[in-house]
Amino acid sequence: MTAEGRWQRLGAALAALWLLTLAALDVVVGDPSFVLSPLFAIGPLIAGAVLPVRPTAGFAAAAVLLSTASGLWNDTWGTPQFWVRLVDVALVSAAAVAVAAIRVRRERQLARIERIAEVAQRTVLPLIPRRVGPLTAGSRYLSAAEDTLVGGDLYDWFHSDRRICFVVGDVRGKGVGAVEQAARVIRAFRQYAAADADVATMAAEMSAYLMPFFDDEEFTTAVLVQITDNTRLTLVNCGHPSPILVPRGGEATFVEPPVCLPLGLGSSYESLSMPWTPGDRLLLYTDGLSEARDERGEYMSLLPLAPLLTVTSVEDALDGVLARVRGHLPNGRLTDDLAVLLLENGVPEGGSVTAPGSLVASVDPDRFVFVARGQPSDVLRRHTTHSSAASPRGAGGDV
Fold it and tell me: How many Å apart are CA 287 and CA 199, to the nearest integer?
């Protein structure tokens, strides 16, 4: 039963209990000088607060009938005071029915507005499919604000026949303004990911595009990821919490490319290229995870989450991470938005992201075997970096 259904059931029970109890007292007292019939009108008022129009009208009719009957068992039938009490109950009961009608209409209007708002919010935050080319992907988003689906955190994805790109970011600020800026960051990501520039150049172009729309205190931290084959991935960190890599046969490690300025502040960005083998998993997240604190104000350690990221499917792994976060937070309540994105390299040995057809759903999911993790690896020891400034090519229109 829904919360609304429980409230309706409770309201109906209270209204019925009020009418029956009051009728019993009125019969027991039986004193024409002490008549309780005007109080019958409270029953429809209770019903009108939570019930639809027809049940409220039923309680209103019952109140009027009981008020009429009260004149019989109190021997006040036909007296002026009887008619005054009856008219009083009838008018208040009619008002209760009118209130119920207005409330129901406004609730339906609000429900329609909420559905529209939910659709609008979901268009800001795209749905990442379970399979993105040869990769297995999973995402979760939890908003700290009540009655909202999205906030200033964001993620998105892009793929072509040449590469797959992901972004996870966090817009500084809260409320509608942060949602608007998050939509703008996603727009910039899609625009420049499609331009086929390297990921460092893409970050610089996104930053240049966003600068005119941000005020002096606005910026976006983000991590950009580019995957072009099954052996390496490239990352750019724009002032964002470091991703966690859980390599096949290795232990979890923070991926720490050169930390650059957030988007909207920087003009030059450096990337890190590192090994990326089948079975490896990469966790991208926002500070809602890295800054989750318990009752004592202690941050949650992230590397101990590695066992949750390796022993199950991507979807189950994310559910386990969120359950751990809720268990760490006081009363399980978030104080900041949380976005997480988990990627697994599901490319078979010898496969390639850029091979013909490898970026579409023609890849047979039954061929992908998730390899168990074991001994430590030196996967982060070998890396290369390069930097790029924003290109002079202009951006498109605003969101």
Answer: 22
